[in-house]
Write a structure and sequence with these properties.
Number of domains: 1
Order of helices and strands: EEEHEEEEEEEHE
Shape: globular
Radius of gyration: 14 Å
Helix content: 10-25%
Distance between the termini: 16 Å
Structural class: alpha+beta
Number of helices: 2
Length: 135
């Protein structure tokens, strides 16, 4: 499903992103890491916490889907906006596939980044977001 995995190891205020060789990063730097990737035209991001939780973000640069998986075979859960109308395209995966998602399955990009930051720091969804379980 996701071709690019990062392992974020939570130890107090530090974290680790493993991308082949591994790069240290603090969990507070996950958001800036995503924003930098966006500047480099990256649209898909996956992070794995040391407790096994996988957090993925895919964006069309305006909206984003944020998913949480227990493992790579888990259908998972994702942030949602119940009742949002319409859909958006342009979600380019690292394998080149371009997807379209219903707007009720996505949130604005800045909100998605905040969700990923919260998930990576605390290990659970922010209390003020709706989550749909796909399991």
């Amino acid at each position: 499903m996701f071709l690019e995995y990062y392992s974020v190891m939570m130890k107090s205020d530090s974290a680790r992103i493993d991308q082949t060789e591994g790069q240290p990063i603090r969990h507070v730097d996950v958001g800036p890491h995503i924003r930098h990737g966006l500047e480099e035209n990256q649209q898909e991001f996956s992070f794995a916490r040391d407790d096994g939780m996988i957090v993925a973000l895919i964006t069309n640069r305006v909206r984003a889907m944020v998913m949480v998986l227990r493992d790579v075979d888990d259908p998972g859960e994702h942030v949602a906006i119940p009742g949002a109308a319409g859909s958006s395209s342009g979600y380019r995966l690292v394998n080149g596939q371009v997807d379209q998602y219903a707007d009720d399955d996505t949130v604005e990009l800045h909100r998605a980044v905040a969700c990923v930051e919260h998930l990576m720091q605390y290990g659970h969804w922010p209390e003020d977001v709706a989550v749909w379980c796909d399991r």
